[in-house]
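Continuing from the previous page of notes. For each protein in this section, the sequence appears first, followed by its structure tokens. Read the first protein now.
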Amino acid sequence: MASRSGDDFLKVENEVFQKLKADDEVDYKKFQSDPEAKKKAEAAMKKTYEELTRMIAHTASLDEALGHLSPDRQDLIKTSFRLQSFNVDIQHETDGSVNLRFASLSGTPLSFVSSVVKLDSNTYEQNRYVLAARIIFEVVMLLLNLIVLAVKPSSKAVAEAMEKITTILSFADNFIDDVDKMVDAARRDDNEGVALAIIACLVDLYKIVGSQLFSLFKIFLMDMSWLDIIIAIAQAACYIATIVLSAGAAAVAKVISLFLDATDFLRKLLQMEEFKGALHTD
């Protein structure tokens, strides 16, 4: 059994290193020429793999799924969706018009969008991308928590990440589809459906040519050292590759669904449903 597990990890490890080698966001030559860096990345991936496969095999309850982790790690994962990106209010005015009001968590203006946007046929699509990008932003934050990184992005990181994600949305329709599936599942009170769509979104970010996931990690982790960023990228890639190669999406989705209930993330998804119906045209 141990040999089978070891062989499975080697498949994951090989997949991750091939992905890193092919990605422009990773200085793989520098990484490969530093034996100590590679050793640290391998150890971090092995730990990620073992923790995830243990969780996949124990999904009866959240306590069982996370029971092998320290209390601090458990709390970090359980509170993942309390993390916020920025605030959006959809305001229906007395004259029948609709305004979107954007603000940071502290109430200050955002650098990447106007504080007040009148919703009409000219602004609808652009702001649909902004709201969808906010969802993907928080999905990536979840992955950071799952691999044990508690990150509070700076306003600069939020702005850069949002610009990057809206650019991705402009050329990759499958991410809008992933968000739409989250919204539809949230409308049906189907938390496992939301979680499955979250995993699909992460897999799409991982598989896309010139991994957008890695470039987003570099933005979120911009204050960390080069080596720590590479190790985090390797752990994230390991997490997703393990889900794919072990056919573990349903098990991981079940665990995520257990800490999704009554979170602000679900409110954001339902807000997107409201946004879809906010603009009425003849």
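Done with the first. The second protein uses the same format. Note its length before scrolling.
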Amino acid sequence: MPAPHDFADLPDIREQTDNAPAQTVFLMTEAIAGHRSTPMRWNSFDVLVMVIRHINGHLNQPDCVAGTNDEEDSKKALVKQEKTNPILRLAWSRFEVNYQSQMAQDIARQAIKTMLWPSIPLPQFMELLESNVMLETLFGRESFLLFHPIVLSQRLESPKNGSWLPEGKDFPLIESAKQSLVRWDCEKGSLADCIESRFGMFENGERCYWYRCDKPIIMRVHFTVRPDMFKDQDAHNARHRYDVLQCLVIDGSEWVADQKTGTIKSVEKETTYLLSMVVRLADDRYDQRVLFRRYNLSGDMIEEPENFEHREKDWRLHDNSGDYVLFYARCSDNAIPRYPGPRFPEVPSEVHIEAHRRYCQSMFERWNAAASNM
């Protein structure tokens, strides 16, 4: 296997500043440039880089990055993962708007392709997103695992508030990462219903098994809409409009051991997620291009450059056909937009976009100046 790319001409944001808000500004305001000669060939790859880049904005803390509370272990694990999967390192790069940076990005793309997929064409977006190298690194981190790693079980005749024992075998990491992708077609209930149906108590043979949600920091959902799904178009749209999908609340109830009696009791908890990014998979409507939109945790859409090839304004989640990947970020209650709907639209007005663009530009200039003086 070829040696990992050294990224000498693509500075690491983390080496330029250790200030988490400053890192987030660079991640949110700088976008990967289109390949100079064959941009469509790299379309899916570039969107994946932007997905990782957006996710990194939510994972600035070391204990989130590598799934450990020990900062040194976290850094070592991260370095190891980035050597195995250099796309992760590319996503932490400064993407400056100049010829030298664009050329360095082209060279890095090809080096990564040669290392990870030397003898096959570059995979499409879903194949890239759910590839083994992604499942073993980024999506194998505890921050992304949907299922709690410990499965509990008891004999069928045992009382549910009695003794539960952990299963003796570990759930394989790559399988757990693979199962963490939620697949939803909105035909059998809401997205929350779909997610919650995967947890709880299930009988198999002589035992009852208890699967618990691990409340990942980032949740990914593969969402498909087909024209033939619903006879009632209103019911169809009600499940996948942006204002419905923008905020996701799932039942995070837990069964915990009572400290005094040792019996199991239920503790009701809700976990709130906000829609942070939408990727629209390639189809004929947009010349087989993969597109995306990003949102911050205030509900505002993050504006991309005008000439950005992954940017189109006229598609909506409530369209009657399309294939999407939704990325949800777990948040606290005080981060939830208090005024959903018109104030936080799926695609804002030009006035809103211009105001947000000016704000992002001012923040970028501020932090760029601070980084230059370090």
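What the second structure shows: Residues 61-69, 338-343 have pLDDT under 50 and may be disordered. The first helix runs from residue 13 to 16. We return to this in next week's lecture.
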